[in-house]
Amino acid sequence: MSDTLFHKIIRREIPADIVYEDEHLIAFRDIAPQAPVHVLFVPKADFATLDDVPEEQALVVGRLATAAAAYARRQGFAGDGYRVVMNCNRDAGQTVFQIHLHLLAGAPLGRFGTAG
Questions:
Q1: Is 7 part of the annotated catalytic residue set?
Q2: What is the pTM assigned to this prediction?
Q3: Which of 7, 24, 100, 102 is an active site residue?
Q4: What count of Cα atoms within 13 Å lies in the side-chain half-sphere of residue 79?
């Protein structure tokens, strides 16, 4: 496995506020939240970016999305709405090179797009 911040969290080498884990993924609160609820869903399979996930491994991405949706339902904010985001590479804002899905919720999120 690589040695990103997320890999260290998976290996329990650094602490995190873990809200969900199973054999395929781990989810924890972002340390710099961009919304009242900001949880990162990270697969235990090792792929640096979404672009690195081969088609035959598409289930990895599906598990992230369905785990995030289930978390939103369990926490009671699915009805109000939430956003899921995956950044791919530097220009899109990816800073940790292990794929992950951001779940944002807890307030009206408005529009998003390019800065400026």
A1: no
A2: 0.93
A3: 100
A4: 3
